[in-house]
Specification:
The protein is α/β, with parallel strands linked by helices. The protein has helices at about 45-50, 95-100, 140-160, 180-185, 200-210, 220-225, 240-245, 270-275, 290-300, 315-325; strands at about 5-10, 15-20, 30-40, 60-70, 85, 125-130, 130-135, 170, 190-195, 210-215, 230-235, 250-260, 280-285, 310, 330-335. The chain has 2 domains: about 5-150 and about 285-335, Alpha-Beta Complex (Quinone Oxidoreductase, Chain A, domain 1), CATH 3.90.180; about 160-285, Rossmann fold, CATH 3.40.50.720. Helix content is about 25%, strand content about 25%. Strands 3, 4, 5, 6, 7, 14 and 15 form a 7-stranded mixed β-sheet that branches. It has a 6-stranded parallel β-sheet with strand order 10-9-8-11-12-13, sandwiched between helices. Strands 1-2 form a two-stranded antiparallel ribbon. The protein is globular, with a radius of gyration of 20 Å.
């Protein structure tokens, strides 16, 4: 093992630079990971643009690599050479009220990877053992990385949607999260309606699993849903609360809006529509490492895969800006080797 490793650190708000650092020694309950791939997520924008340059934080929370060293007290299930992943939440504490309730993903004392703890835009990274996810052999590291966030968020969002096989599920926003939601929803046996803006995404939405694509620039999405009996669930991956509110009337009685996207503005809700039809709204935020392993296994069993572009670590700033431009279909992944796939 070399004495140093390369990483992309935030040296000014919105600016990433290649740096070299000493290889860290994992502390008690931690492992050292040799990173193979790290996805770039929309949430990275805040971590990069709002970071304190004095900290020189390393972003990244869709990390896949291999354990190269174990700190004291790491459970025996984790071994050197094992391929593992780390998502947004970097490992629960085990002591707080939420952990004692078994709600590990709601632990308020866990690090947020790439925000409060260095993440995976790097060749090496330490992580809490409680945050580790076992990666199936059937997935490449580049494929697995986006599932640790975008896959998990949509997989769990569909699970809490209240929809059953044969029900209509609408996915609002066909991007990094939405393209995984379409695949999972189709494979879970739902009637899948994709809702997006513009005709350019229509063909991809149908290929990904939608039975019908609704272009909000040409059609009233709520009216379309109402005409087919209403949606049992509306999975929103966008932050535009005005658009979310405009589609909500398309929920059938007892339908549920599941919020994955976070917006700046409050969501305007007609309370009579909720009460009169016993409709509901729920927020859903990723999940535990165990949930992540279930999402990965489901992806393997059903053939669901993220559509990715890859670039090498040293081009992370370029990759980040390409993600911000909206040009990526549909997830950008950083690689630590030479197997980058150039954008088309």
């Amino acid at each position: 093992m070399t004495a140093t490793y390369r990483a992309m650190a935030v040296t000014a708000p919105g600016r990433l630079e290649l740096v070299e650092r000493p290889v860290p020694v994992p502390e008690a309950g931690e492992v050292l990971i040799s990173v193979e791939a790290c996805g770039i997520c929309g949430a990275d924008r805040g971590d990069i643009e709002k970071a304190d340059p004095a900290v020189r934080r390393v972003p990244g929370h869709e990390v896949v690599g291999r354990i190269t060293a174990l700190g004291p007290g790491v459970p025996a299930i984790w071994k050197v050479g094992q391929r593992v992943g780390v998502g947004r939440f970097g490992g629960h504490c085990g002591d707080c009220r939420e952990c004692r309730r078994g709600k590990f993903h709601l632990c308020r004392q866990q690090p947020v990877m790439g925000a409060t703890r260095d993440g995976g835009y790097a060749e090496m990274m330490t992580a809490r053992a409680t945050g580790l996810v076992s990666i199936p052999d059937d997935l490449s590291s580049e494929e697995a990385a986006p599932i640790l966030c975008a896959g998990l968020a949509t997989f769990n969002g569909l699970k809490v949607s209240g929809a059953g096989p044969g029900d209509t599920v609408a996915v609002l926003g066909i991007g990094g999260l939405g393209h995984m939601a379409l695949q999972y929803a189709r494979r879970m046996g739902f009637r899948v309606i994709a809702i997006g803006r513009g005709p350019d995404i229509a063909a991809e939405a149908l290929t990904l699993g939608a039975h019908r694509y609704v272009d909000t620039e040409r059609e009233d999405a709520a009216a379309v849903l109402t005409d087919i009996g209403g949606a049992r669930a509306l999975l929103s991956t966008i932050g535009d609360t005005g658009v979310v509110a405009s589609v909500m009337p398309g929920l059938q009685p007892e339908g549920r809006l599941v919020l994955l996207g976070i917006g700046r503005d409050p969501l305007a809700v007609a309370t009579g529509h909720l009460v009169g039809g016993e409709r509901s709204i729920v927020g859903s935020i990723t999940g535990s490492p165990y949930d992540n392993e279930r999402a990965l296994d489901f992806s393997v069993l059903t053939g669901a895969r993220p559509w990715i572009e890859t670039l090498p670590l040293e081009r992370a700033d370029e990759a980040f800006r390409r993600m911000l431009s909206g040009a990526v279909k549909f997830r950008m992944v950083l690689t630590m080797g030479d197997s980058a796939v150039a954008p088309q």
